[in-house]
Amino acid sequence: MTEDKKTDNVTDTVEEIEAEPIFAEGDVTEEGSQEEALESFEMDQAQPEIAELEAKIEEMDSRYLRLQADFDNSRRRARLDMEAAQKYRAQSLATDLLQALDNFERAIQIEPDTEQTKSLLQGMDMVHKGLLDALKKEGIEPIEAVGKEFDPHIHQAVMQVQDESFDSNVIVEELQKGYMLKDRVLRPAMVKVNE
Amino acid sequence: MTEDKKTDNVTDTVEEIEAEPIFAEGDVTEEGSQEEALESFEMDQAQPEIAELEAKIEEMDSRYLRLQADFDNSRRRARLDMEAAQKYRAQSLATDLLQALDNFERAIQIEPDTEQTKSLLQGMDMVHKGLLDALKKEGIEPIEAVGKEFDPHIHQAVMQVQDESFDSNVIVEELQKGYMLKDRVLRPAMVKVNE
């Protein structure tokens, strides 16, 4: 940088000045030493203002770099926030839908005694499947339970039983279906666990 | 600003210099005129570097202000994007659910001939209402159609009829239900319009 070069010159000349004081009567008649004196004196006088300006430039430079760093951080945060908002956008609606889905599944657990009921049930099975497909498209899926090992992160134990036909700590029955939204638990499965 | 004051002094001294050249042999013996010469010479020599530094400071200042303006704009955009993402977050899941909802409504349009079918239909009506309530909570609502004036923004005319019992340009029949998501048309209602 030109600033640095200049500063070096200056410090040099400053030493020269200390070497031979410039206002001694004897000197001024002598060409060379006078020009030398003029130059060093000039640099010496101008130095404080130049130094001040160079300091200001340095301070403005670091202020600019700080602002740029803040800008980059803010952009990165905004991007991450938006990604999370997109990833879990279905959470609110899906959560509200779960109760209707529970009722739906309860209502179709019947043995049809007529053809009409049977065909209505078949239609409802298709509708139910359609709802689950729509949820799955947004990353919402039922949590597996019966026959799986109990996992406190996704299963909620509401009863304990002793059942020889199951291993210990395995889920014997599901009392309410649980759902995941991608890597999030939308609702844990309420289960009966074998001791 | 101190810079301005300084610049004035300098231009003055520059004139002085032109008035009396400082390296004339005659002068150097004379104290006063020599000091004067030294000062004006000094200012004259230092001026180019000082001007350069001051120009750089000005340029850095406007560069900082430009970056700050970009920063503010980027923050405002990010906020608006996030607000829109939140407002319409249910759009994707709701859109996927519409077909299942159509099938649901078609399937329950039957006349029950047994008590079992009747009670199953009642259960399904409740489930259907629960689904619509969940959608409504997220701002998704059916578009009114039959008996309303045709509105190309929310209604899609698939047939025209002539029916004395309706006014002109009024919707006579709804062939597929439409839905709004807040101020957005999720799906227009497909309708039969009176000429």
TrEMBL record, chains A, B:
- Gene3D superfamilies xref list: 3.90.20.20, Head domain of nucleotide exchange factor GrpE
User: Can you cite an annotated GO cellular component?
Assistant: cytoplasm
Arranged from A to Z, the UniProt key words for this protein are: Chaperone, Coiled coil, Cytoplasm, Stress response
Q: Which GO terms describe its biological process?
A: protein folding
Q: List the coiled-coil residues.
A: 43-70
Q: Where in the cell is it found?
A: Cytoplasm
Where does it primarily localize?
Answer: cytoplasm
User: Which terms does the record give in the GO molecular function aspect?
Assistant: adenyl-nucleotide exchange factor activity; protein homodimerization activity; protein-folding chaperone binding; unfolded protein binding
Cross-referenced Pfam families: GrpE (PF01025)
User: Subunit composition?
Assistant: Homodimer.
Query: What the protein does?
Result: Participates actively in the response to hyperosmotic and heat shock by preventing the aggregation of stress-denatured proteins, in association with DnaK and GrpE. It is the nucleotide exchange factor for DnaK and may function as a thermosensor. Unfolded proteins bind initially to DnaJ; upon interaction with the DnaJ-bound protein, DnaK hydrolyzes its bound ATP, resulting in the formation of a stable complex. GrpE releases ADP from DnaK; ATP binding to DnaK triggers the release of the substrate protein, thus completing the reaction cycle.
Q: Which family does it belong to?
A: Belongs to the GrpE family.
UniProt cross-references to HAMAP family, sorted A to Z: GrpE (MF_01151)
Q: What is this protein called?
A: Protein GrpE
Naturally occurring in which organism (per UniProt): Peribacillus cavernae
Tell me the classification of the organism that encodes this protein.
Bacteria, Bacillati, Bacillota, Bacilli, Bacillales
